Amino acid sequence: MNPSSFASLSLNPELISNLATLAYTEMTPIQAQSLPHILAGKDVIAQGKTGSGKTAAFGLGLLEKLDVKRFRIQALVLCPTRELADQVANELRKLARTIHNIKILTLCGGVPFGPQVGSLEHGAHIIVGTPGRIDDHLRKNTLKLDTVNTLVLDEADRMLAMGFQDTLDAIIARIPAQRQTLLFSATFPKQIQSIARRIMKQPIMVQVDSGHENDSIQQHFYKVTDDRQRMTAVRLLLMKYRPVSTLVFCNTKKETQEVADELIRHGFSALALHGDLDQRDRDQTLIRFTNKSASVLVATDVAARGLDIDALDAVINYQIARDAEVHVHRIGRTGRAGNKGIACSLYNDKESYKLALLDVEIDPIIGSQALPSLSLLDKPVAPPAMHTLQIDGGKKQKVRAGDILGALTGENGIEGNQVGKIYLADNWAYVAVSREVMKPALKKLGEGKLKGRSFRVRLIHN
Ligand code: ADP
Ligand code: MG
């Protein structure tokens, strides 16, 4: 039998057959290395870059161990951000499709507390959440973790970098010592070693490909003289490479807005993502970027933490990151899953010492190249492929993605392949449609009915 086949594991046959329906034909390297130990009940530290399949590694471990008939919280998964917790919960639900009556609950900040208390009263098998909100529930006694037998720290490096150390300690103190602890991380800074020593028992270390993928990320470095040229350089790089989706990293919140504003002034569809946005604006920003109706997202490292945006064509470092680890993490967001990615970093004279720091950690020889020709700026800026339409009805109104798709593509409607991502929130929904069919799509949704009701529909202007 192929050693990297899931069938080589002592996994419930239903879990295995479900993996086939998910088209998970083989284990990824990190899964192949960690799952045998995880299934044997060992504590495991697994380090692997983003996209290496860490979620299924711990997910299959905890699902295999779970006793559905025992309606108690048996596993806790801690993640750094709400977005990541949602993704992990979704992946777990996919993996658990064949397990009837399994209840997976997310507990994150940024959403009201009360409904979470209600959900907790109904019970759950697995909790996925962010440290802050989990700790809040523990303090208010709305959550008890004394039946947990598996603890997962996902993206542990990020959680520590965000200052969650004390909160994690407080949470872990409420979980029985007799448990399995699994720790996942993209990097392995010293802080992780120390937390691992404190909370894990003879952990097994599994490490896969710690660096970025040299072959799929092209790195470019450009020297600029001042901030004006830095700004122009961003436009030049966008014109030269014409990426569909670009993430620009800035060091400060103020800069993210300035860069986004300047790009917008020059006709790019750019959005700034920073900590001052309220949850709704943040969600909307991410939706517009991931559904390709905005091409450039300008963010700080903090704001971009935990964003899992696939198929990013380019990352631009407006300045070089403060250290090599952050740099590797930033550029690792492009070129995922075999897609070719471009990483461009801008630096001035004063920052050139940082290049030397990167050189130690990153294999390819880092040189500097000339900026693309200014004549590129005379060309028209390509608009994004999609438009976002907002519908004032969502999950609470029982609107489903299929209803929206149906309304758009029904009689005299637009083609299914002109409909992009659909995102459902509680009271509204967003759907991306191809740019050229925006008007008919708007008309179709506005005139038609969803779940027998008419909802207000509007275009979100870029
Ligand atoms: P990580 O947590 O390491 O960043 P994820 O767990 O989010 O990575 O996995 C990245 C992607 O790979 C997800 O879309 C997931 O569904 C997919 N994936 C995971 N394991 C497999 C597998 N064995 N075969 C195919 N796809 C997989
Ligand atoms: Mg992950």
Characterize the quaternary organization of these chains: single chain
CATH class term of the largest domain: Alpha Beta
Number of domains in the coordinates?
A: 3
Structural class: alpha/beta
Total number of helices: 17
Q: What are the low-pLDDT stretches, counting only 5+ consecutive residues below 50?
A: 210-214, 360-365
CATH superfamily grouping of the largest domain: P-loop containing nucleotide triphosphate hydrolases
Question: What level of helicity do the residues show?
Answer: 25-40%
Write down the overall mean pLDDT.
89
Tell me the total number of β-strands.
17
Ligands bound, unique: adenosine-5'-diphosphate, magnesium ion
Quick overview:
The chain is of the alpha/beta class and 462 residues long.
Structural description of this entry:
This protein has 462 residues and is an alpha/beta fold. It folds into 3 domains: 6-207, 3-Layer(aba) Sandwich (Rossmann fold), CATH 3.40.50; 217-378, Rossmann fold (3-Layer(aba) Sandwich), CATH 3.40.50.300; 386-459, RRM (RNA recognition motif) domain (Alpha-Beta Plaits, 2-Layer Sandwich), CATH 3.30.70.330. It contains 17 helices and 17 strands. The strands form 3 sheets. The protein has a 7-stranded parallel sheet, sandwiched between helices. Helix 3 crosses helix 4. The longest helix has 15 residues, at 227-241. It is globular and about 65 Å long. The N and C termini lie far apart (53 Å). Mean pLDDT is 89; it is low at 210-214 and 360-365. The structure holds adenosine-5'-diphosphate (ADP) and magnesium ion. The site of magnesium ion (MG) has 4 residues, from helix 3.
